[in-house]
Amino acid sequence: MHVIKLTNKRLQPTLLSMWPKIQMVFVLLISILLLLGSCAQNEPILKIGLIADPQYQDAPGSGERQYRESLWKLDEAIDTFNYYEVDFIQNLGDIINGEWRSFDSIIPVYHKINPDIETYHLLGNHDFSIDTIQMADLLETLSMPDCYYSYVKKEWRFIVLDATDYSYYANPLHNHHPDKIDEYYANTEGLQNHYDWNGGIGEIQQVWLKENLDSAKSLNQKVIIFSHMPLRPEHATNLWNSKEIVHIIESSSSVKAFINGHRHEGGYAFENGIHYITIFGMVNTMISSYGILEIYRDSLVLKGFGNQQDYVLLE
């Protein structure tokens, strides 16, 4: 039996004739991969909603401070954070100006936050403008695990300090010896921050801070620190023992930023590799003020809303 093999070269294009098309497909694939890589690099690692000093109270305004307006301003901030799908929200203290019933009005605003967005609080001096007996309920009301604490998100460690640790107004909660508070306060004699509405960070919290920074370094984690009171630049609102805390954090190569409230007009300084950012106080405006901090591989971008200024900060 004879087998006849039919060959039609027109139906079997050679590899050589197909090479231009293969090249086009290859170039297209490479372009797509580069585009995807570029998009991935342009996506923030984390997005953080930042709020400082709402200081809500059902009371008439005083100067630039509009206490009643903070409810709708906070409501706007929460809507913005939900829209941009931030990873979490960090409040920087003073969510009330005074009176325990102020919490009953402002805490429900936070309930509008999308359920997958966590909210963290820290203690500010005005949060203690309540009856002494109510201070024991303050941490539970703010859903805080302790007066100072830390948490980790995507290889970043966030350290939440208690700037009210040693202070006159918060001592019914902290229960330190009054002489030690007097010592911290006396050390500011003649300085800009010699005011009894500031506070100091004590030795036990300092040890805890150092341990957190050492742990972050060993785990190759970058660090952002949150506080109510600022450290830099020199100002009337600074922590009583700001120089002590500056020495601790500037001795760590892990710390990239220190973010605080308390100084209502906001501010910025860059010292020894650390960005010191003061968020504009929400209570001090007829519009609003808050921000979203975007963390990228080699930069921090603060997008301001209302009176909050924008910053693009390189590591």
CA radius of gyration: 26 Å
CATH topology grouping: Purple Acid Phosphatase, chain A, domain 2
| CATH architecture name | 4-Layer Sandwich
Element order: H for helix, E for strand:
HEHEHEHEEHHHEHEEEEEE
Helix content: 25-40%
The CATH first-level class comes to: Alpha Beta
Q: What is the mean predicted local confidence, pLDDT?
A: 90
Largest sheet: 6 strands, mixed
- Poorly predicted runs: 1-13, 27-40
Question: How many domains?
Answer: 1
The global form is globular
End-to-end Cα distance:
81 Å
Can you give a write-up of this model?
The structure is a single chain. This protein is an alpha/beta fold. The protein has a single domain, classed as 4-Layer Sandwich (Purple Acid Phosphatase, chain A, domain 2). It is built from eight helices and twelve strands. The protein has helices at residues 15-42, 70-84, 101-110, 138-141, 171-174, 178-186, 203-218, 242-250; strands at 46-51, 88-91, 118-120, 149-153, 156-160, 222-227, 255-260, 267-271, 274-278, 289-295, 299-306, 311-314. The protein has a six-stranded mixed beta sheet with strand order 3-2-1-10-11-12. Strands 4-5-6-7-9-8 form a six-stranded mixed beta sheet, with helices on one face. Helix 2 (70-84) packs parallel to helix 3 (101-110). The radius of gyration is 26 Å and the shape is globular.
